[in-house]
Design brief:
Blueprint lengths: L2 H7 L7 H13 L7 E5 L5 H9 L4 E5 L7 E5 L2 E6 L10 E5 L8 H11 L5 E7 L7 H6 L7 H10 L3 E8 L4 H14 L12 H17 L10 E7 L3 H7 L1
Parallel strand pairs: 1-2, 1-5, 2-4, 5-6
Antiparallel strand pairs: 3-4, 6-8, 7-8
Helix pairs in contact: 2-8
Length: 246
């Protein structure tokens, strides 16, 4: 997660409808997968990696972010969490998360490909990015984004980096019309770059979490139409399969 947004939301991050709902979508996309070690790239506070460490059979997590002031070790649910400025032992992780990372990187394909090359065969990658270039706003400028993606663009990026796409889906589809209207209105009113995320009143926060929870159960498995976020679950193929794709 972006450290800028963590600064805005403070300790309410885990309860905020946006991050709580995105974590719910991540859980569903990973359902049925077996992984013992998690590598959370561009992790910020490590919200997603640490949450999965608490909720799954994973035994350890490494959070990587160049913005950490120093390397440090921690514990989550009795399991080790390593916070590192540079990744260690990429091949030792069965699940590699890129949650809202690639949009920050100018050479997104090359960045992802470097991790794919170092990963073990059959390792899973879960990618998420902001969706639809038409939703570009001061929110993206504030967070330092280079681009937004359509789902097929994200899947093509994964393939160019050497991955085999398992599934791709949009999320926050029910909110897409409202977000589009708000950003279109802001585009005409102001060019100020600022985050759209704010602490929400408890009632609003609860309603949005409920709405997004329903979407995660009913629409996420089939939604390739629209959304504010695009997800791609992909796998590094084995050597022979990888050569076949080249």
């Amino acid at each position: 997660m972006d450290l800028k947004e963590e600064d805005i939301l403070g300790e309410s991050v885990s309860r905020h409808w946006y991050y709580a709902s995105k974590l719910g979508a991540v859980r569903r996309l990973l359902r049925g997968l077996d992984f013992r070690a998690i590598l959370d790239v561009g992790a910020g506070s490590g919200f997603f990696g640490r949450s999965l460490l608490r909720e799954t059979n994973a035994a350890r997590c490494q959070c990587v972010d160049i913005n950490y002031p120093a390397d440090r070790d921690s514990i989550e649910a009795g399991k080790p969490v390593l916070f590192r400025r540079q990744p260690e032992d990429i091949a030792g992780h069965e699940l590699i998360l890129f949650i809202d990372v690639l949009e920050h990187v100018e050479d997104d394909t090359g960045f992802l490909a470097n991790y794919v090359a170092a990963a073990a065969e059959d390792a899973y990658f879960l990618l998420s990015v902001p969706a639809f270039p038409s939703l570009w706003s001061g929110h993206d400028v504030f967070l330092g984004h280079h681009r937004r993606y359509r789902l097929r663009q994200l899947e093509d990026l994964a393939r160019r980096a050497g991955l085999e796409v398992v599934r791709g889906r949009y999320f926050f589809g029910l909110l897409f019309p409202l977000v589009a209207l708000v950003r279109l209105a802001k585009r005409g009113m102001s060019k100020v770059s600022e985050s759209d995320l704010r602490p929400a009143p408890p009632l609003v926060n609860g309603v949005l979490r409920l709405l997004c929870g329903i979407e995660a159960r009913l629409l996420l498995p089939v939604n390739r139409l629209c959304g504010v976020t695009a997800f791609c679950l992909a796998r590094k193929p084995r050597g022979e399969q990888q050569r076949d794709h080249q």
